[in-house]
Amino acid sequence: MRKVTLFLMVALVLLTVCFSGLALGKTYRFYVISHGGPGDPFWGVVMKGMEDAAAFVNKGNPDGDVIEATYLGPAKYSIEELVNMLNSAIATKPDGMAVTITDPASVEGPLRKAIEQGIPVIAINVPDPRPEGERIPYLFYIGGDEYLSGKKAAERILATGKPKRAIVTIHEIGHIGLELRAKGFIEVMTANGVPAEKLATYLDPTQAIEILKSYFAKNPDTDAIFTLGSIDSSYVLAFLREQGLIGKVKHAAFDVCDEVVAAIKEGATLFTISQQQYLQGYLPIIYLYLYNKYRFLPANDILTGPGFVDASNVQLVEELVKKKFW
Amino acid sequence: MESRRHSLLFAQLLGSIQRCPGFEALAGLVVLFAVFSFTATRFLTLESLAGIVTVASELGIVACGVTLLMISGEFDLSVGSVFGFSAMVFASLSNVGVPLVIGFVLALLVAFFIGWTNGLITVKFHIPSFITTLGTMMLWRGVLLAWTGGFGVRFWGKSLFLDVLNGQFFGGFRASALWFVVLVAICNFALTRTPYGNSVYATGGSREAARLLGIPVDRVKVVNFIIVAVLSGLAGCVQFARFASVDPLRGQGMELEAIAATVVGGTLMSGGHGSLVGTLFGVLLIGMVRSGLVMSGAPAYWYQAFVGVILIIAVIINTKLREWAK
């Protein structure tokens, strides 16, 4: 009988300790909402960043806090669906949201409402381009700077020697991010006396290569190409190989993929730019947690890009691409 | 009396022009060729012509099927998705060690199945093919995106079979041009010299009259759906053979270019009238516009606008010729 009583007392104490421990911690619900679906490899990396950050905070948290992070994004690019998802998320009164401001006019209403309700909001991937006073009053922005990326790409190419003529291939005409990259690149090249222009290559590789051939036939002095995404990088590399121009034409790329990594190792591509989008999923979760808990805020926007992959770090990045960090 | 004879002669002349297949597209081709010869540097070179033929060939293989189907009074909007899906099947099987020939045949079988279902759904449920294939266009593109997670597939091996499909054989000309010419010849023979060709025209001309004549209109349509899908799959595999890589967006937008080339070539969207020779000129014309514009120094952004104008002019000429010939 005494043994049973002792056992029950010990069990009671243990249970009390356990429950008091749980009661100390708080569960934080965060959403990452973007215009890109989880099927897109780019957003797959962002999603992994978000999950890793939540797991990092949850594991052995001294206060017993728990983060529940959820990724929402339409399977196919759709602003309407993004807004629907945003409204659904706001309705659950979360402890914080990270949102892409892909179309400021469409997300302005719901986001202002959320911010008025006291929900902390961080912009990721695409900021609101308007000045501070006019823009949606989110806390700060975490993401790349497209215009700066284009400028840096041009500067890096120029540092290896001044080209005679440079082009930027653009595979999705009208994509504001791509246009900004091209703008930054062309401005720096032109300022340094290098004739530079955009060349629309579209999505079909056969057509893209014939367009490049036609351009080179007209402008045979072209000796630098900046490609704005992995799709056109692939076409341009095929073109350079077929025409025997590897090593004669400087190639700089955007985004990290198997083919570009192989080309950097081979010496066909000088470098590629990454937005390091893993950080666009990871950092908002950490910052939202720290903001909720201690009201910490960085003094400025946080730029995750342009990050560079070149001959100096390509081996390491190759491993990390396989693990979905890049 | 004299003026009546003249107008009769004019009508007869127009009638014979009207009977001459692909006349409008040929006229457009000659005019554009002449213009680009003056405006574009290096346009009149073998390399440039080879480029035009290469672009036209892959689109043309698809357009052959689209022409047959359109003459029989139906549409297929899923050709771009089938193009990408078949290429992905071929690439994925090649990567897991399946012999290339077997992978190729299996990819075409998948295309066959998609075409067959397109046809069956359209004729059995009496759904307009525009709607059926709009649905299957989204379905197969969606399956492709979900299957690949948005990642492209690259085949690193080399093979004689890939060269047979799309190797370089003379100057800048590629094997795809041979495939295209052979397929135009076969389809043209089938359409103009066989009872099946008569059935195709009759089915598209007047469905009920054709049925009363004992023509199995449903079967003719299903067979044409299968032909267009298999040819789209073939074009996808041919393109993969050149680049050894496929991305899940491959072939997007191809459906509209194939329809544009077919319509420019004089095939009626309402069915019952059209020719493979016209389509041959139509795809060459569309292939030429892009190279010609780039070589003329026009911003490649104008390409789509230019094709749009050509399409409208071609249809106006077609309609007017038909009215005058009456």
TrEMBL record, chain A:
Domain Periplasmic binding protein: 38-285
SUPFAM superfamilies: Periplasmic binding protein-like I
Gene Ontology CC terms, in alphabetical order: outer membrane-bounded periplasmic space
Subcellular localization(s) per the UniProt record: Cell envelope
Native source organism of the sequence: Candidatus Caldatribacterium saccharofermentans
Family matches, as CDD domains: PBP1_ABC_sugar_binding-like (cd06312)
Main location group: other
GO molecular function: carbohydrate binding
Signal peptide: none
Designated name of the protein: Sugar ABC transporter substrate-binding protein
Family (UniProt): Belongs to the bacterial solute-binding protein 2 family.
Source organism superkingdom: Bacteria
Automatic annotation (TrEMBL), chain B:
Subcellular localization: Cell membrane
Secretion signal span: none
InterPro entries per the UniProt record, alphabetical: ABC_transp_permease
Membrane topology: Multi-pass membrane protein
Pfam families found in the cross-reference section: BPD_transp_2
Record carries keyword Cell membrane: yes
Role of this protein: Part of the binding-protein-dependent transport system for D-xylose. Probably responsible for the translocation of the substrate across the membrane.
Protein name (Swiss-Prot/TrEMBL): Xylose transport system permease protein XylH
Organism: Candidatus Caldatribacterium saccharofermentans
Lineage: Bacteria, Pseudomonadati, Atribacterota, Atribacteria, Atribacterales
